[in-house]
Amino acid sequence: MSGLDELLTADEVAELLHIPRSTVSDYARRGVLPSIKLGRHRRFVRSDVDDAIERLRPGRAPRRSDRPVNAR
Fold it and tell me: Which has more pLDDT, 5 or 2?
């Protein structure tokens, strides 16, 4: 996309990750998957989705910055 990251819909992210669309929306609300609000629509930057997948991969020890704010 000529230097710009591809924007994905929630349906496209759900298909990419093999999870329900409702889970994608929940992850977006909780900040697990960064998203952009465009009016009433939510879009996901492909590189942000790829980064989130990398952070959540099993076997990788979470960094301190990966933990939710209320985790201890």
Answer: 5
Question: Do residues 49 and 33 touch, judged by C-beta distance below 8 A?
Answer: yes
CA distance 66 to 63: 5
Whether the CB-CB separation of 29 and 67 falls below 8 Å is answered with: no
Rounded to a whole number, what is the distance in angstroms from the first to the last CA of the chain? 41
For residue 21, the surrounding DSSP H or E stretch is helix 21-30
Domain boundaries defined on the chain: 7-58
Angle 10-17/21-30 helices, nearest 10 degrees? 110
Q: Dig out the tokens for 59 from the structure.
A: 């076997």
Q: How far is CA 65 from the centre of its chain?
A: 16
Amino acid 63: pLDDT:
57
